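quick one before i forget lol
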Amino acid sequence: MARRTRGSDGGEHGFSRRRMLQTAAAAGVGVPLGRALGAGGEWAVQGRGQARFPAFTVPSPVFSLAERNRRWAVVRANMAKPQWNLDAIITAGSDALGNNARYLTQTAIQKYSQPAPEVLFPRDAARPVIAHISGTRHVVEWTRRLQPGGWLSDGKLVLRAESGSEALAKLLAAEGFNRAGMRIGVAKLQGSRFDPEGLVSYTWFERLKAALPGVVFLPIDQFPPQVGNDTGPIEDAAMSKGPEEQDVLRKAVALNEHGLAAVIAAARNGAPRQADLWWACFREMYAGAGEDIFRCSIGFDAGGNASLGEPTDYPVHVGQICNQEISSAYQGYGSQINHAFFIGSKSMPGYEYYRTAIELLAKVIERAIAFIQPGKTTYGDFVANNAETFKEFGERGSGLNTHGGGLGFLSRPRQSAEDNLVAMQPGHIFDFKPAVTLDRAKIKDVGERNRPVQLGESLLVTEKGAVRLGNRPLVPIATRD
């Protein structure tokens, strides 16, 4: 069987069963098919059975037992507060991303494979945390990943091959949470920042309530916060990252910087389409973390989110300003960076406009970091200070410039009226990504309108102030000398 065509270069292209089998024999039976197949369906073999295969990180849980105990203690302390007074918290399988479950257990189910973990998290530390994670294969695999000295080692976290409202209702009853007046918090029931109407299945919830008629089920997401900084028992705990969480976010930011470098290198090498820049970024970041939580949105002469995070066939031209939003995750924890660069040389029309904008944004970031005082500065104060800095420079910033970094990217805090009263605390990590379109009366770009320029960094609030998590210089970049 053959699907081969002769190209204009005189060579044959396509698929040949005979050729595949011949080359497979030459490569050796021990070479896996996926590793041996190269570009265009051909075998990529080096030497004697040595397949070309790039370095690739296989993700595995890294958070220690001490980190588990730290975050469990904070969540339980929040559950005991008068405004909550919760006996337990549960997560729903219909919350496909399952970030609340992952925060409490480290377990995650591949999207669209099975329901997300359904976790029973008791306030009483003497009781086990029990996670229903669907099929037996999930229990076997996560037991393998978590057992050696990890979160399963002391028996306080239990995994079971169960799912659904009936199984969870039986678990709640067996653990004594079926008594009248018991207060059970439900993650993602309603009121969360990006899902105000919740992600809990109506049928699942109705069956659970019918099976436990005396139990009081309560939403635990608070948007906006109802009491001071209180954003909910889990979300409040998750906002203040421990040292181990800070470390994985540093790795995620470093990976973002590698992705940015790959985009710039592709542009320097003459990549013809936005999709080629996108692919260079994806390949670098996916191989670096082995996780599918990824975003590389690239816009030419427009905002970085113009392409909605997807590869496109937009052509790359000399003189363009390339904005982007680059986000990757390590252990599910992600942050975003932005760094507009100029496609072309410094002598080209438009570069001076771009350079002026980048240098202004670098100053805005520097001033913003210096402004932060942990425990005193609210996110509303931060937004107001940034606006004042732009005004001082005779410009006006544009767009959303502050949002949270952490598990699942979309964690708080975020620039919004609802989060303005939240005070910055040590351990908060957020992305600060100011953008500007310079006043045309002061400096003219090429074309009829001035173009937007973006520069962004991930910031960590410390006891003494704030620091960048990235290491790259925040300077203008041109792809040609």
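fyi The domain at 243-468 is CATH 3.90.230.10 (Creatine Amidinohydrolase).
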